[in-house]
Amino acid sequence: MSSKDKREFRRVTTLMPFEVRRIDPREYASYRCRVSRDTIVVDESTPPRVNDDALNHWLNMLNTKLDYLISLSSPKQYGSSFMAVEPLNISGSGMSIITKEAFNIDDILEIKVVIQIYPAKVLYLYGKIIRFEQTPHLSNTRTLGIAFLNMNEEVRNEILKFDFKKHKEKLIEKKIF
Predict the structure, then answer these.
(1) What is the share, in percent, of the chain residues with pLDDT greater than 70?
(2) C-alpha to C-alpha distance for 43 and 86, rounded to whole angstroms
(3) Does 62 lie in the same domain as 21?
(4) Where does the pLDDT of residue 41 fall: very low under 50, low under 70, confident under 90, or very high at 90 and above?
(5) In a 10 Å sphere around its CB, with 0-12 CB exposed, 13-18 middle and 19+ buried, how is residue 81 labelled?
(6) DSSP states of the chain as a string?
(7) Which domain holds residue 118?
(8) How many domains does the chain have?
(9) What is the reported pTM?
(10) Per the domain annotation, does 5 fall within a domain?
């Protein structure tokens, strides 16, 4: 294996909620990758059934009320975010995604990724497009190679310590992957 093929961090392919936007290259210097703790993350999974019927009834009632309250909240007012679950390939130093949007080499991107643990966390990642290519077997799509910029150890550790194997098992269980 050549030194070019060696990677500093293990890469993992999975499905996760994320969204991407292009940012002005003059502004990115002030942005730092970070973990958000003030964003509401709505998880559509059903809570597990509890053996105690009375407790189960109360928990389901509370869950229904919380769902109702969340549906009333304005996403902008409370910092909540609704993202589609998409495939991505991620490591501690970069990621690749598939997109239909037109991007160029050296474009700077802000990528919001939801790490689905309890409580869920939103990672704000910044990166530069270092390569793109047409995605085989998918018309009008490109695969982007992104190198992270302004990454700190806290955010890198969130990516590295996330249990992707367990996450993938849950996706398979839900028949998403």
Answers:
(1) 71
(2) 15
(3) no
(4) low
(5) middle
(6) --TTT--SS--EEEEEEEEEEEE-TTTGGG---EEESS--B---PPPPPPSSHHHHHHHHHHHHHHHHHHHHS-HHHHT-B---EEEEEE-SSEEEEEESS---TT-EEEEEEEE-SSS-EEEEEEEEEEEEEEPTTSTT-EEEEEEEES--HHHHHHHHHS-HHHHHHHHHHTT--
(7) 12-41+81-173
(8) 2
(9) 0.69
(10) no
Residues 90 and 110 occupy one common structural domain: yes
pLDDT tens for 124-158 read 999 999 999 998 888 899 999 999 999 999 999 88
- 137 and 92 in one domain? yes
Same domain, 169 and 159: yes
Write out the two tokens for 170.
Answer: 């849950």
C-alpha 87/C-alpha 168 separation (Å) is: 11
Say whether both 166 and 91 belong to one domain: yes
Greater confidence (119 vs 145) lies with: 145
pLDDT at 9: 80
Res 150: pLDDT = 92
